[in-house]
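During the first year of the project, the team set up a workflow for recording each protein of interest as an amino acid sequence followed immediately by a discrete structure-token representation. This format lets reviewers and collaborators read both layers of information side by side without switching files. As required by the reporting guidelines, we include two representative entries from the current panel. The first entry is reproduced here exactly as it appears in our internal archive.
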Amino acid sequence: MSGRLVPGPADAAPAHPAYGLLRTVTQAAAVVLAENPSPMTLDGTNTWILRAPGQAGCVVVDPGPEDPAHLDRLEACGPVELVVLTHRHLDHTEAARTFAERVSAPVRALDPTLTLGAEGLVAGERLGVAGLDLRVLVTPGHTDDSLCLVVDDDGSVLTGDTVLGRGTTVLGDYEGALTDYLDSLRRLAELPGGTTLLPGHGPDLADAGETARQYLQHREQRLDQVRAALGELGPEPTPRQVVEIVYADVDEKLWPAADQSVAAQLEHLRRMD
């Protein structure tokens, strides 16, 4: 695809959601919103484009679904130096190989099975690419391979599905998911004040640390609700029995995802006993 899609000034950019264009958010980050909205993806998957001011090359984070129109828009942001995946879920990774081969760029992720032409990422690794210094912050909980990318040059952090721009995230279906997730939120809560939160779904937010602290408070409230449900149901309820009490105000279409989160909450409480 010829030409390059160049973002305008951040203060002139439209608000989220904005389909079909490159929306500038910070000096180093712009976003292309995939047109795959659903109850689980909110308005769709945010594909982030990172580059230092004045740089030609860019980093593409989470190419998203196999949507030719979406990939055309991403390619127009190039040249692409690197593709990074925040975690394994298909709404973030489905098009990764297709896109990477299309733009001749390597793919990196925590899970080495997702990489292409490069090694897997490791905690604390720093990526010098597109004129930026990107720091890998390992944040399991949503999945066991979830990561965040801290853009120290820019005062921002890409959070994938660890922290969303609206609502809360579903916990992973592996042992220790909530314990991991609380630790991950505590690390994000320590980010400097005013660190811009660039999520995998939903709008960008002004303060990642404050949002992480709100998430922690929400999780503690949910745990209290689950404890209360256990007092009513007994010590060995099914996740769905707890969901019917604790998530009674949530659309029943989302209850299967709530089952998974409740299973993680029950397992966490048993670990604490």
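The second entry, processed by the same pipeline in the following quarter, appears below.
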Amino acid sequence: MIDLPSDVTHAFDWGSTGAPPKDAVLADTAQRIKAVDLAIAEHDPLHEAYRFYSEGTAAAGSERYIQEFVDHEPVRRASPASTTPM
């Protein structure tokens, strides 16, 4: 089970299908989504959690996706006082 920071929540609206193989796929899908979000939260593009659920092209795509979040720095806005001419 993936434990996320308390400010990260998910709501998966799919219920049980009654077919164990399908339910297992849905459960793994939920865990993979959470694993990618955990890697983002921990700023770790090579986090072992998502790599447990994917490999090859899928893992590489997740790594690039996570790296975009890691590399992103919020735009710092100048305060109104600093934008007025002297």
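For the second entry, the following points were noted during internal review. The CA atoms of residues 68 and 74 lie 12 Å apart. The chain has a mean pLDDT of 86. Both points are flagged for discussion at the upcoming steering committee meeting.
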